[in-house]
Amino acid sequence: MRKYINLPQLSILFVGIFLLSACAEAPKKEEKKEEKKEKVESAPASEQIIDEEVSFMLPSPIQIAAIFNRAGLEYKSGLTNNPTNVDKYNTKTSKYLNFGVYSADLAYAVLNNQQQAAIDQLNAVKKMSDAIGMPNVFGGGDLIKSFESNIGNQDTILRILTTIKRRTDEFLMENEEESKEAIFFSAAWVEGMYIGANSTSGNAKVEPRLIEQMTILENIIKALRVQQDPSLDLNFLIDGLTNVYQTYNDFENVRKFNKGEIELSAVKLSDSELSTLTNQITELRTQIVNG
Amino acid sequence: MKKIATSLFLLGFFILTFAGISPKPGSNTSNNCDVKALKKEGISQLSPYYYSSSKVTSISYADTVQYREIEVPLFKGEKYRMVFNSKALPKGITVEVFDKDRSHDGRSALYSTNTNEEKMAIYEPDNAKRHYVRYSIPAGANIENSCMVFVLGYQLTFIENTEE
Question: How far, CA to CA in Å, does A246 sit from each of A193, A239, A286, B93, B161?
Answer without folding.
Answer: 16, 10, 20, 39, 40
